[in-house]
């Protein structure tokens, strides 16, 4: 059983290192090569969750140490260093985060936020919320 879990985990980890990334919204699916510029102003929507504190101090996919008190996020395919404005659709609050990790690996979610980002979005009690993300850089 453990062998199967590790095999799936390694496969997911290796697949997150691909040279392209894709993101979708209800009306559009666009694919970019890692050498293309990210379209500043591109907006996409979906559900966001936030990391458990058990990841605090662990190494992220970008090689940084995860700090739950910084404004960071995980996305499956956006390049590390991408800045996103993330707006909580429930209350209109927003925060700017930097992508420094891969995830979330739960169907239906587009973003995993640090605890600090989730706190500023006032989504701690909800756990998962609808967000609108705008690429800033």
Description:
This protein is α+β, with helices and mostly antiparallel strands. The protein has a single domain (2-135), classed as RlpA-like domain (Barwin-like endoglucanases, Beta Barrel). The chain has 2 helices and 8 strands. The chain has a 6-stranded mixed beta barrel. A hairpin with a 2-residue loop joins strand 1 (20-25) and strand 2 (28-33). The protein is globular. Mean pLDDT is 81; it is low at 12-35.
CATH class: Mainly Beta
Number of strands: 8
Strand content: 35-45%
Gyration radius, rounded: 15 Å
- Silhouette: globular
Biggest sheet features: 6 strands, mixed, barrel
Mean pLDDT value: 81
Q: Please mark out the parts with pLDDT under 50 across 5 or more consecutive residues, or reply none.
A: 12-35
CATH architecture: Beta Barrel
Helix content: 10-25%
Write the CATH fold name.
Barwin-like endoglucanases
Structural class: alpha+beta
Spatial order of strands in the largest sheet: 3-7-4-6-5-8
CATH H-level superfamily title: RlpA-like domain
C-alpha termini separation: 42 Å
SSE order: HEEEEEEEHE
Number of helices: 2
Number of domains: 1
Helix-strand blueprint:
Elements: H1 2-15, E1 20-25, E2 28-33, E3 43-50, E4 72-74, E5 83-88, E6 94-101, E7 109-113, H2 115-120, E8 129-135
Parallel strand pairs: 3-7, 4-6
Antiparallel strand pairs: 1-2, 3-8, 4-7, 5-6, 5-8
């Amino acid at each position: 059983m453990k062998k199967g879990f590790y095999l799936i985990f390694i496969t997911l980890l290796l697949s997150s290192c691909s040279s392209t990334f894709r993101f979708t919204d209800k009306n559009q699916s666009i694919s970019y090569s890692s050498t293309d510029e990210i379209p500043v102003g591109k907006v996409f929507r979906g559900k966001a969750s936030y990391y458990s504190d058990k990841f605090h101090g662990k190494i992220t996919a970008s090689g940084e140490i995860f700090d739950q008190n910084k404004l960071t996020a995980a996305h499956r395919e956006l390049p590390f260093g991408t800045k996103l404005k993330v707006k909580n659709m429930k209350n209109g609050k927003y925060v700017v985060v930097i992508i420094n990790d891969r995830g979330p690996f739960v169907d239906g979610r587009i973003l995993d936020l640090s605890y600090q980002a989730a706190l500023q979005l006032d989504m701690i009690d909800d756990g998962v919320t609808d967000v609108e993300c705008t690429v800033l850089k």
